[in-house]
Amino acid sequence: MVRYRRNHLPGGTYFFTVTLANRRSTALVDRADALREAFRSTKAIAPFGIDAIVILPDHLHAILTFPQDDADYPNRWRRIKSHFTSAIVAAGLPLVADARGEYRLWQRRYWEHTIRDDDDFARHVDYIHINPVKHGLVARVADWPHSSFHLYVRNGYLPQDWAGTPPADEQGFGERS
Fold first, then answer.
1. How many domains, the chain?
2. For position 22, which CATH number holds?
3. Domain for residue 89, yes or no?
4. Residue 129 falls within a domain, yes or no?
5. Considering the chain, what is the average pLDDT of its residues?
6. 144 domain-assigned
7. SS3 annotation, 99-136
8. pLDDT at 171 over 90
9. Which residues of 135-169 are buried (b: 16+ CB within 10 A; e: fewer)?
10. SS3 label, residue 77
């Protein structure tokens, strides 16, 4: 069996894509509150920083930074996934356990990329923020509620109209004064 090798850099910053097993599911946005709680409870036990994140219906993208002496992101993702799955089950949403008693809400693997430098970081932040538009969920980045884009705007890192301006009818063009 081929063993997948991951880069474990203590104090590193990583880009992740984590996906639900059912790609037609909307559980992540339907239960975004439970997902946020899963992140909070995991951070309380095993700290990390969230540099950028977007939650889409069936997957999420995030850039996380770990403490200087720590690169244990596999256990953090295990905790986040487990906490979220438990919340879904507790809410009574239909999930079926397999023969081992495990729920197949999440894909087993996830994509991870070690951020190399500031340009790599900026490209991945942009990718995260534009993703709802890329998937046709909204016309403008600002219209997607489950994104760190709004924090970037509040902190002055990005303008509200980044990667898209409102359609003409929303800007008042063609209206009588």
1. 1
2. 3.30.70.1290
3. yes
4. no
5. 89
6. no
7. CCCCECCECCCCEEEECCCHHHHHHHHHHHHHHHHHCC
8. no
9. eeeeebbbebebbbbbebbeeeebeeebeeeeeee
10. helix
